[in-house]
Amino acid sequence: MMQRNKMIIEIKNLSLQAIIGILPHERKQEQNIIVDSKIWYNCTLTREKDRYTNNRSIQDNTISGTEMPQYHNVSQQDFLDYTIVINHIKNMLIQNKYGLIEVALHEILHKSFVQFDKIYKMTLRITKPDIYQDCVVSVTQSRNRKQFENLQK
């Protein structure tokens, strides 16, 4: 029987340019956005599955070149690929040109639970660092899978 390991991915200071806001100048010009997220998920990897081969020797503690290790016995169903999650968040913010941060948070969390069944809880913060000179404005929302499923009913 496969043991489920509870893991947390933290994405910090994901910086991008996007249209977000309701003021006329915010609808025309992209602005700096910083995203932070904490994602709780179930991982089914075991040490036996974590075997890889590449062009380096076992004694070499550095990976030279650009070739990525080739994993055996590991599938996307065993773990949550944070690169895919990061691209998912970035693409939603860039493509949807949200008016309100609150709507962006709600939709990104919703779509994350739909797309990534391993996630059981997620917190997302969107920061607009340049909107004011004397402070930084952020809005945060957290949701767990049960809350998401209740919204679906």
Automatic annotation (TrEMBL):
Domain Dihydroneopterin aldolase/epimerase: 9-143
Xref: SUPFAM superfamilies: Tetrahydrobiopterin biosynthesis enzymes-like
InterPro entries reported in the protein's UniProt record: FolB_dom (IPR006157), GTP-CH-I_C/QueF (IPR043133)
Any one Gene Ontology BP term: folic acid-containing compound metabolic process
Pfam families with a match to the protein in the record: FolB (PF02152)
Single GO term (MF): dihydroneopterin aldolase activity
Protein's name in the database: Dihydroneopterin aldolase/epimerase domain-containing protein
The organism of origin for this protein: Helicobacter didelphidarum
